[in-house]
Amino acid sequence: MRMAKITLSNLAHAYHPNPASEDDYALKQTSHVWEDGKAYALLGPSGCGKTTLLNIISGLITPSQGRVFFDDDDVTSIPTAQRNIAQVFQFPVVYDTMTVRENLAFALRNRGMDKAGISRRVDIIAVMLGLEETLDCKARALSADAKQKISLGRGLVREDVNAILFDEPLTVIDPAMKLELRIQLKSLHNELGHTMIYVTHDQTEALSFADEVVVMDKGRVLQTGTPEALFEAPAHTFVGHFIGSPGMNVLDVTVDGSRAYLDGNLIKLGHHYGTPAGKVQIGIRPEHISLNATNGLPAQILRVEDVGRHKIVRAQAMGQTLNLIASNQTTINTGMASLGFERGKISVFVDGWRFSPSHGQEGAM
Amino acid sequence: MVDKLKSKNFNGRALVMIAYILFLLLPIYWLINMSLKQNSEIISVFSIWPKNLTFDNYRTILTDPSWYMGYINSMIYVVENVIISLIVALPAAYAFSRYRFLGDKHLFFWLLSNRMAPPAVFALPFFQLYSSIGLFDTHIAVALAHTLFNVPLAVWILEGFMRGVPKEIDETAYIDGYSFPRFFVRIFMPLIASGIGVTAFFCFMFSWVELLLSRTLTSIDAKPITAVMTRTVSAAGMDWGVLAAAGVLTIVPGALVIYFVRHYIAKGFALGRV
Amino acid sequence: MEKTVNQRAWLLVLPVFLLVAFSAVIPLMTVVNYSVQDTFGNNKFFWAGLEWFSELLHSERLWSAFGRQIAFSAIILALEVPLGVFVALNMPKKGIWASVCLVLMALPLLIPWNVVGTIWQIFSRVDIGLLGHTLAAMGIDYNYTRDPLAAWTTLVVMDVWHWTSLIALLSYAGLQSIPQAYYQAAKIDQASRLDVFRFIELPKMQGVLMIAILIRFMDSFMIYTEPFVITGGGPGNSTTFLSIDLVKMALGQFDLGPAAAFSLMYFLVVMLVSWVFYTVMTNMEKADTFHG
Fold first, then answer.
1. A21 in a domain, yes or no?
2. Looking at the domain covering C61-291, what would its CATH class be?
3. Residue A317 resides in a domain
């Protein structure tokens, strides 16, 4: 089985010729390396450029600038058909008038594989995807999730694929089937070891599928990392906000050393940050805020939502709203509360980007 | 290499389209060419553009009531037909798209079967029917005769568009206390506005282009332009110039209608069924 | 969509029912009535039974008109359907040129049928027409008023000119509904252009194409005005199609009995062919769905 490392070098794309400003770019300058055999998720809200990026990798779009490498081969101007990638689209793309078997065999036939080889591959993949019962049915008669399996299968039958790309493949699948298909995908990845890139706007899908998640917004890659890294140490306020449910609380403060001030109220930080200039914010996950702390931040509790596993509390402090998560057992009354922030879990951002603490200095106790 | 291939491909497509559209426009150009020539020039010299440009042919038509009344008559019955077809077809299409009722499928097929009836079959019986009830040579007679072909088509097209509107919209409106007529006019019709436009376009199309029935059902007062044109052989032989000018003027309303619905043409021709 | 049973829906259908019944049933009754009677004038009729029908079924005039009609419909369908699909495949997908093409292509569809006849008459005449004149100048003997082959060619080319756009526009509508992803998937699968047509475009056009073929069959089978203007059914009887023959019989010779019998058989044939067509069409769709 042949696979490849995919390298994007200084890539950018605008859909209109002669882009005037940076806003005209659907994809702003990006460099990235997709390691061979890993499962990636490309996560971001709709219109953030993730589909553009995907289509550049598959060759459906030629980028305005930059190069694409598969291993060491420059494939930037090589047409899709010769790139040996497979792509699964948002809604099932199947050849309606063909049977499931013909659908699966199609790409192999076009590549001149012999009959015996085709039939062997088709059978293997059909079993893998649980399509063996319906192999001789016309594809148009099947349900949406079965069709989506066919389009996945059309990619998997080819032994030579460099990567399998998924463009929000579960959009039209009903919720019950979604989970099952996702588990199946994950196990296929473990079994076959293809490089997989999975585009989605759903963080659950991304975090559960991927070894590494690439978060995008407004045509820019903001952070690449393991689900854990994204959660614990978001590189940008957007990442903090986008990941987690509810997302990270971001508060406007001033920072001096290891102290942050929210409208004069002291919040102690875990590290020293000096005196950063610009727009300074701290971020804290709802999971890391406690109610009823001594000498905490005074806040007004606005609303409590019981979501089953835990309670989500919405509070307001100094005109800024924040969410926190409390255990199911606690009874919470609306009214005043004193919020405690878990010191080591506070992130500092300057102009949106993560700000690292100064080295060698521990926060004041 | 890819770019080169693409541009070559584009040129191939453009060539096909240019050839086809040229094929469509050439006869029309020739008609316009003829309409701007004097009859003597048409018969004596062969030229691909008018040597002595003249608008006399158009002047003849626009000043002679026996000519221009033909246009007015045609317009009157076409508009009457479009209105009648829409008014009766809208509720019927709604019923077919929303409800099942006794004999609905048979009724639908029976309606459509009328679209398959050759107008020639109905020419004589229509003549007798409308003569016997005193409607011969009236606009409404032609309009009613054309509804036989347009109403089934209108019901069919509208039903296709209405099926695309979710039923929940109806239910919400009833819950909000709308009566059926108010719901239909205020909420439902705006939702299928493009469908109504497309239907009107098709009704216009058939009624405007038809000759046999409109000629059979009229003699003087409601004589349509198409019938006027079939009788241009005068003592001096064929008046080609005037005939061509009259032809050009019959293309104008159609061209205007197309221009106004140009954004819906592609969708419209799919009759709401793609 | 789930439809509810509601008998009061009949109230909504009633106007259509009454209108069409008035326009279709009463005249058809007249036709049926005439078809079984004979007359010597003076509005005196007597029972003739099925005499007209059997006479017509043995009349060479009807059968030859029928043969010409079938040939005409078959020829124009064989030309217009492939050409229309081909044009649709080559149309620009979007942008200003797409609109320009749509508007220009729709133009012939809205020209009154007799004007279509006139246009082609003026275009094809040897003395004044661009086409006729050019062909004559090239030394080709072409005169549609004397030569049956030239008359047929003129009518066929005229019909292709008139109606190919309808097929093209319907096919185009079908093509427009194909999401871009299908073409992308085909690229990834290394499908050839022909494969894309066979496995993606044709299946998606199938529905509208069937409608187009049905409409074109019906309309070409009833064609009257254009041959009436251009050839008047001639030279001889070479372009006398069913409708022309019927109008000659009914309004020209006032042979009410035979004309009525003719009408009924004509109507039945159109309906029968359309019904067969419709059934085959829906069965094909059903066969596909029942499979799974």
1. no
2. mainly alpha
3. yes
B186: in domain:
yes
C62 shares contact with chain B (CB less than 8 Å): no
Instruction: Give the chains touching B; criterion: ≥3 Cβ pairs < 8 Å.
Output: A, C
How far B93 CA lies from chain A's nearest CA (Å)? Answer: 29
Owner of token pair 């393991």: A226
In chain C, residues with a C-beta closer than 8 Å to the C-beta of A87 are 184-185, 188
* Facing C188 at nearest CB: one of A81, A97, A134: A81
Query: Does residue B32 fall inside a structural domain?
Result: no
pLDDT of C237-253, one tens digit each?
A: 888 888 888 888 777 77
Residues of B in contact with A62 (CB under 8 A): 2
Report chain B residues whose CB lies below 8 A from the CB of C246.
Answer: 118, 120-121
CB contact (8 A) between residue B119 and residue C222? yes
Residue by residue, pLDDT tens for chain B (274 residues) are 344 444 455 578 889 999 999 999 999 999 998 888 887 777 777 777 887 788 888 988 888 888 888 889 999 999 999 999 999 999 999 999 888 888 888 888 888 888 777 888 888 888 888 888 888 888 999 999 999 889 988 998 888 888 888 888 888 888 888 888 899 988 899 888 888 888 888 888 889 888 888 888 888 888 888 888 876 555 456 778 888 888 899 899 888 888 887 777 766 666 655 4
Per the structure, the complete domain to which residue A317 belongs is given by 245-328+337-354
- Given a contact cutoff of 8 angstroms between Cβ atoms, the answer to whether A221 and A214 are in contact is yes
Asked whether the beta carbons of residue A62 and residue B2 sit closer than 8 angstroms, the reply is yes
- C-beta separation of C230 from C57 below 8 A: no
Helix (H) or strand (E) holding A337: strand A335-341
| Structural domain count, chain A | 1
Contact A348, A281 (CB under 8 A): yes
Interface of B with A in 2-21 (CB under 8 A): 2
Q: Which chains pack against C, by 3+ Cβ pairs within 8 A?
A: A, B
Gap between the Cα atoms of B78 and B142, Å rounded: 9
What CATH number did the domain enclosing B124 receive?
1.10.3720.10
Q: Would you say residue A50 lies in a domain?
A: no
Cβ of C112 and B97 within 8 Å?
Answer: no
Residue B260 lies in a domain: yes
User: Do β-strands A212-217 and A39-43 pair in parallel, antiparallel, or remain unpaired?
Assistant: parallel
pLDDT digits (tens, 9 = 90+) for B181-209: 899 988 899 888 888 888 888 888 889 88
In chain A, residues with a C-beta closer than 8 Å to the C-beta of B2 are 62, 77, 79
Distance to chain C for B194, nearest Cα, Å: 15
Pairing assessment for the beta strands A73-74 and A65-70 based on DSSP bridges: antiparallel
| C272-286 residue pLDDT tens | 887 887 777 767 665
Count: domains in chain B = 1
Spatial strand order in the sheet of A65-70: A27-34, A6-13, A65-70, A73-74
User: ipTM of the assembly?
Assistant: 0.84
